[in-house]
Write a structure and sequence with these properties.
globular, single chain, disordered N terminus
Length: about 170
Protein backbone atom coordinates (compact mmCIF):
# COMPACT_ATOMS: atom_id res chain seq x y z
CA UNK A 1 0.00 0.00 0.00
CA UNK A 2 1.28 3.45 -0.74
CA UNK A 3 2.15 5.89 1.97
CA UNK A 4 -1.01 7.96 2.49
CA UNK A 5 -0.32 11.68 2.97
CA UNK A 6 -2.86 11.94 5.77
CA UNK A 7 -0.76 9.69 8.00
CA UNK A 8 0.65 11.58 10.94
CA UNK A 9 2.67 10.77 14.02
CA UNK A 10 -0.48 10.94 16.14
CA UNK A 11 -2.30 8.49 13.85
CA UNK A 12 0.66 6.10 13.86
CA UNK A 13 1.00 6.19 17.63
CA UNK A 14 -2.75 5.75 18.08
CA UNK A 15 -2.84 2.74 15.76
CA UNK A 16 0.20 1.10 17.33
CA UNK A 17 -1.06 1.77 20.88
CA UNK A 18 -4.39 0.15 20.06
CA UNK A 19 -2.69 -2.96 18.67
CA UNK A 20 -0.36 -4.29 21.34
CA UNK A 21 -0.09 -6.94 19.96
CA UNK A 22 -2.13 -7.46 16.82
CA UNK A 23 -4.43 -10.50 16.68
CA UNK A 24 -3.25 -13.77 15.14
CA UNK A 25 -3.18 -13.90 11.34
CA UNK A 26 -6.47 -15.83 11.19
CA UNK A 27 -8.23 -12.90 12.89
CA UNK A 28 -6.47 -10.08 11.02
CA UNK A 29 -8.53 -8.03 8.59
CA UNK A 30 -7.17 -6.58 5.38
CA UNK A 31 -7.91 -3.11 6.76
CA UNK A 32 -5.72 -3.68 9.83
CA UNK A 33 -2.88 -5.14 7.75
CA UNK A 34 -3.07 -2.25 5.29
CA UNK A 35 -3.06 0.25 8.15
CA UNK A 36 -0.01 -1.44 9.71
CA UNK A 37 1.76 -1.30 6.37
CA UNK A 38 0.90 2.41 6.00
CA UNK A 39 2.19 3.10 9.51
CA UNK A 40 5.34 1.12 8.79
CA UNK A 41 5.99 3.02 5.57
CA UNK A 42 5.33 6.41 7.17
CA UNK A 43 7.70 5.58 10.02
CA UNK A 44 10.44 4.71 7.50
CA UNK A 45 10.47 8.39 6.51
CA UNK A 46 9.58 9.76 9.96
CA UNK A 47 11.14 7.59 12.70
CA UNK A 48 9.24 9.10 15.63
CA UNK A 49 11.07 7.92 18.79
CA UNK A 50 7.83 7.23 20.69
CA UNK A 51 6.78 4.76 18.00
CA UNK A 52 9.72 2.38 18.41
CA UNK A 53 8.58 0.60 21.61
CA UNK A 54 5.08 0.27 20.19
CA UNK A 55 6.31 -0.97 16.82
CA UNK A 56 8.42 -3.69 18.46
CA UNK A 57 5.39 -4.91 20.43
CA UNK A 58 2.85 -4.95 17.61
CA UNK A 59 3.68 -8.51 16.48
CA UNK A 60 0.96 -11.12 16.95
CA UNK A 61 0.86 -14.82 16.02
CA UNK A 62 1.93 -15.44 12.42
CA UNK A 63 3.61 -13.07 10.01
CA UNK A 64 1.03 -10.28 9.89
CA UNK A 65 -0.01 -11.54 6.45
CA UNK A 66 3.46 -10.70 5.18
CA UNK A 67 3.93 -7.31 6.84
CA UNK A 68 5.91 -8.36 9.95
CA UNK A 69 9.10 -9.25 8.05
CA UNK A 70 9.01 -5.78 6.45
CA UNK A 71 9.09 -4.08 9.85
CA UNK A 72 12.84 -4.74 10.02
CA UNK A 73 13.35 -2.06 7.35
CA UNK A 74 11.37 0.40 9.45
CA UNK A 75 13.21 -0.47 12.66
CA UNK A 76 16.51 0.12 10.85
CA UNK A 77 15.57 3.80 10.48
CA UNK A 78 15.71 4.31 14.26
CA UNK A 79 18.94 4.90 16.22
CA UNK A 80 20.69 1.57 16.78
CA UNK A 81 21.13 2.11 20.53
CA UNK A 82 17.41 2.74 20.95
CA UNK A 83 16.55 -0.37 18.92
CA UNK A 84 18.91 -2.56 20.95
CA UNK A 85 17.56 -1.27 24.27
CA UNK A 86 13.95 -1.83 23.20
CA UNK A 87 14.67 -5.30 21.80
CA UNK A 88 16.25 -6.31 25.12
CA UNK A 89 13.14 -5.02 26.94
CA UNK A 90 10.82 -6.92 24.58
CA UNK A 91 12.78 -10.13 25.18
CA UNK A 92 12.33 -9.77 28.92
CA UNK A 93 8.58 -9.41 29.03
CA UNK A 94 6.40 -9.91 25.97
CA UNK A 95 4.04 -12.54 24.57
CA UNK A 96 5.62 -15.45 22.70
CA UNK A 97 4.84 -14.16 19.18
CA UNK A 98 6.26 -10.74 19.98
CA UNK A 99 9.42 -12.32 21.42
CA UNK A 100 9.80 -14.47 18.30
CA UNK A 101 10.00 -11.37 16.08
CA UNK A 102 12.30 -9.63 18.57
CA UNK A 103 14.61 -12.65 18.38
CA UNK A 104 14.54 -12.39 14.59
CA UNK A 105 15.49 -8.72 14.83
CA UNK A 106 18.22 -9.45 17.40
CA UNK A 107 20.26 -11.08 14.63
CA UNK A 108 20.14 -7.86 12.64
CA UNK A 109 20.89 -5.65 15.65
CA UNK A 110 23.27 -7.85 17.66
CA UNK A 111 24.33 -6.62 21.07
CA UNK A 112 25.84 -8.28 24.12
CA UNK A 113 23.07 -6.78 26.28
CA UNK A 114 20.68 -9.29 24.69
CA UNK A 115 22.69 -12.41 25.59
CA UNK A 116 21.35 -12.72 29.13
CA UNK A 117 17.65 -12.35 28.25
CA UNK A 118 18.06 -14.74 25.31
CA UNK A 119 19.76 -17.36 27.49
CA UNK A 120 17.01 -17.11 30.10
CA UNK A 121 14.38 -17.65 27.40
CA UNK A 122 15.89 -20.76 25.79
CA UNK A 123 14.15 -23.26 28.11
CA UNK A 124 10.68 -21.85 27.40
CA UNK A 125 10.91 -21.19 23.67
CA UNK A 126 9.36 -23.33 20.94
CA UNK A 127 11.52 -24.76 18.15
CA UNK A 128 11.27 -21.79 15.77
CA UNK A 129 11.95 -19.28 18.53
CA UNK A 130 14.94 -21.31 19.80
CA UNK A 131 16.28 -21.36 16.25
CA UNK A 132 15.95 -17.57 16.10
CA UNK A 133 17.57 -17.28 19.55
CA UNK A 134 20.53 -19.46 18.58
CA UNK A 135 20.97 -17.49 15.37
CA UNK A 136 20.90 -14.25 17.37
CA UNK A 137 23.53 -15.59 19.78
CA UNK A 138 25.70 -16.50 16.81
CA UNK A 139 25.32 -12.98 15.41
CA UNK A 140 26.10 -11.43 18.81
CA UNK A 141 29.18 -13.56 19.35
CA UNK A 142 31.63 -13.01 22.19
CA UNK A 143 32.46 -14.95 25.34
CA UNK A 144 29.10 -14.56 27.05
CA UNK A 145 27.18 -15.81 24.01
CA UNK A 146 29.61 -18.71 23.68
CA UNK A 147 29.12 -19.67 27.35
CA UNK A 148 25.37 -19.57 26.85
CA UNK A 149 25.58 -21.79 23.77
CA UNK A 150 27.89 -24.24 25.55
CA UNK A 151 25.51 -24.51 28.52
CA UNK A 152 22.45 -24.86 26.28
CA UNK A 153 24.11 -27.53 24.12
CA UNK A 154 23.85 -29.90 27.11
CA UNK A 155 20.08 -29.35 27.35
CA UNK A 156 18.95 -29.07 23.74
CA UNK A 157 17.00 -32.17 22.67
CA UNK A 158 16.18 -31.21 19.08
CA UNK A 159 18.75 -32.80 16.71
CA UNK A 160 18.55 -29.92 14.19
CA UNK A 161 19.22 -27.34 16.88
CA UNK A 162 21.97 -29.43 18.47
CA UNK A 163 23.67 -29.55 15.07
CA UNK A 164 23.28 -25.79 14.70
CA UNK A 165 24.91 -25.23 18.09
CA UNK A 166 27.78 -27.52 17.07
CA UNK A 167 28.22 -25.60 13.82
CA UNK A 168 28.20 -22.27 15.65
CA UNK A 169 30.73 -23.48 18.21
CA UNK A 170 32.98 -24.91 15.47
CA UNK A 171 32.87 -21.68 13.46
Amino acid sequence: MSNVPSTTAAKCLSFLSANQPLPADAALSADIVNELDSVRLWLCDHPVPEALPLLLRVFGEGDGLGVYPLIEDTVARFPRDAVVAELAAVLEGSPDATRYWALQLASTFPSECMVKPICHLLPVLDHDSRLAALTALEAIGGDEARRCLTAWAQKEIDPELRALISDIMAG
